[in-house]
Amino acid sequence: MLSERLLIIGSGPAGLTAALYAARADLEPVVISGNQLGGQVSITYEVENYPGFPQGTTGPELVELMQKQAERFGARVVIDEVTEVDFRHGSPFAIKTYGEMYEAQAVILCTGASPRRLGVPGEDLLIGKGVSFCATCDGFFFRGKDVVVVGGGDSALEEGLFLTRFADRVRVIHRRDSLRAGETLKRRAGTNSKMNFVWDTVVEEILGNGRVQGVVVRNVKTNATERWPTDGVFIYIGHYPNTDLFRGQLEMDDRGYLIPGPHQMTSVEGVFAAGEVQDPVYRQVATSVGQGAAAGMRAERWLAERS
Ligand code: NAP
């Protein structure tokens, strides 16, 4: 059993920023990476709205810099996943990972969120065989091909635009007739000749035998269904928070987002939360970084008051 003052669960912008602040306060925090080192932004190609990068940057570059900065002050990033937590008995908390048992005086939860699935036939079977939630990871395999993107938010447009680098045609299928995405992305997508929009339409089935070959779509206004051949289905219909591990131990809303009180403290003293795991609204790198900084500072103060 390893004994730590502060354990941070999750290595996205919130977790790495909490680690930076805690490390600068000499807490030698341990960051458990989770299954995606760097979190969601590490699989985002372009980041244009994080301050300090006037020309934009890439997700992997940004989180690599954040990790290096936290490590420079003594944070330790461990590639591992948490499998069990016990917050029921107060501090010190017991945390089990695949590789280790920890006891931590304080914990910051930065487990983020994961992409939602459509829940239609064919989707689960064809993940990795043409169904994807990550254009940055898989776009390259669709050079010269036809793909569809499902969703009408910023992610659908941003990732759809990225796919136009490779695919010959990118059809964005949206369930309404107006986009949720912001104006800049809307403008760019609207003027990209490889991108088309299909309005008022939902995907009802993904077709393919070992590889995506098409989709069944339904127009929600006319109820007409059609089968369209396509090579890839990229799904961007929002996220759900990664809080399964904390169910029954911490207060959460009906969608499963943690509800922190003042200063990022959850319903258990000494357990803090930052980033998308507790933010269904803003969900930006910039806001996650701010929440991570607050959680790191507050955890340090909480530990100091107790000792
Ligand atoms: P989002 O804004 O929640 O958009 C999800 C989209 O999926 C919506 O258009 C929604 O339709 C649609 N949808 C939801 N459930 C569906 C279903 N079952 N079937 C079909 N369509 C469905 O999610 P997001 O695009 O991932 O963005 C999340 C947050 O990250 C947002 O705050 C966004 O601004 C931010 N973000 C920002 C950037 C950027 O600034 N560059 C890039 C990516 C993400 P409705 O519109 O009808 O609800």
Total tally of structural domains:
2
Class from secondary-structure proportions = alpha/beta
Looking at this structure, what is the CATH superfamily of the largest domain?
Answer: FAD/NAD(P)-binding domain
Strand content: 25-35%
CATH class of the largest domain: Alpha Beta
- Described by its quaternary structure, the protein is single chain
> CATH fold name of the largest domain, please?
FAD/NAD(P)-binding domain
**Bound chemical compounds:** NADP nicotinamide-adenine-dinucleotide phosphate
> N- to C-terminal separation?
22 Å
Number of strands: 19
Helix content: 10-25%
- Average the pLDDT over all residues and give the rounded result: 96
CATH architectural arrangement of the largest domain: 3-Layer(bba) Sandwich
Q: Nearest-angstrom radius of gyration?
A: 21 Å
Number of helices: 6
